[in-house]
Amino acid sequence: MKFIDEVEISVLAGNGGSGCVSFRKEKTRLLRRKIPNGGDGGKGGDVYLVSDKNINTLTYYHYHRVIRSEDGKNGKNNFRKGKEGKDTVQTVPVGTRVFDRRTGEMIVDLADHHQSIKIAEGGSFGLGNYRFRTRRSNRCTLGKPGEKKKIFLELRLLADVGLLGTPNSGKSTLIRQISSAKPRVANYPFTTLFPHLGVVNVNNGKFVVADIPGLINGASKGVGLGINFLKHLERCSILLHIVDISPEIQSSIIKNIKMIDSEIFSYKSSLFKKKRWIVFNKIDLVKEDYEEIASKIVQNLRWREKYYTISAIENIGLKDLCKDIFDYVENTKIQ
């Protein structure tokens, strides 16, 4: 399935039905007269958006750019009211933000499962002529048009933990090892083309991890793929910076870490300020003392947060890492 996280759509609520002009003939001793008995029209259908945790992309709206509700029916004789138009209820992924395209203002952030909002109001119904029966009336009113809007949907995935790193640092391998997510893994850059979510079970709890495409130099200016998906990390409690510590690139590790720091800061300072831990990956390829190498790197960087040494492919150090992540996420939720 194609991953779509932004889309513009038109929303058309149903028009209200018009009132009816109708008379009932009544004969009295002295004269014949007409009694108004035209019914009201039916209200137009509303349009609702409801968030659903079982959906993770806006692909449906990429192919269905117009959402409309049913019009109300016109009133009928004998005081019969027109049928109301059916409401339209559309589901979107949890984490979808809805913007008014005309003003640019955010209407709602659907951050919880089964959260709903009426996005467009159906038109009100017209009145039949029985409403004006104080006199012999040929008068009725027309139904009102339904609300019409252009809205912009933007998906920001809900995850507790976000994975950052350069291409081929082992982010996808890590998420495959600790969760049931199965992103593509290969020995070349950009095997991850869109975000993946994985649920990690720890003891009696769990947390959600998001993996995005790797960042490269110039990402904040649109180079590469990762910058397009950094917004999906904005809701995370903590970020893990995955660093390849294998011998062939050890000379460029500090440069790569600083590059990603710079790209994140250029993208959004609030994301840069998030809690972040460094995770040195691929220690299985290091013949030297990898703990000493990692220690020298963090000292050079003057890194004050936690750091870990793991091998995602060999499942080394993952248990302790996941336990610490879970404890941090749970403590953050309590606060």
How would you describe what is shown here?
Strands 12-13-11-14-15-16 form a six-stranded mixed sheet, with helices on both faces. It has a five-stranded mixed sheet with strand order 5-1-10-7-8, with no helix packed on it. It has a three-stranded mixed sheet with strand order 6-4-9, with no helix packed on it. The longest helix is centred in the C-terminal third of the chain and has 17 residues, at 318-334. It folds into two domains: 6-155, GTP1/OBG domain (Spo0b-associated Gtp-binding Protein, Chain: A, Distorted Sandwich); 161-334, Rossmann fold (3-Layer(aba) Sandwich). By secondary structure, the chain is α/β, with parallel strands linked by helices. It contains six helices and 16 strands.
Overall pLDDT score = 87
Distance between the termini: 37 Å
Spans of at least 5 consecutive residues whose pLDDT stays below 50 are: none
| Strand percent estimate | 25-35%
The chain-level structural class is alpha/beta
Level-1 CATH class name of the largest domain: Alpha Beta
| Shape designation | rod-shaped
CATH topology of the largest domain: Rossmann fold
Would you identify the CATH architecture of the largest domain? Answer: 3-Layer(aba) Sandwich
Radius of gyration: 30 Å
Number of helices: 6
Output the strand order for the largest sheet.
12-13-11-14-15-16
Order of helices and strands: EEEEHEEEEEEEHEEEHHEHEH
Could you say how many structural domains there are in total? 2
Main sheet attributes: strand count, strand direction, barrel closure: 6 strands, mixed
The CATH homologous superfamily of the largest domain corresponds to: P-loop containing nucleotide triphosphate hydrolases
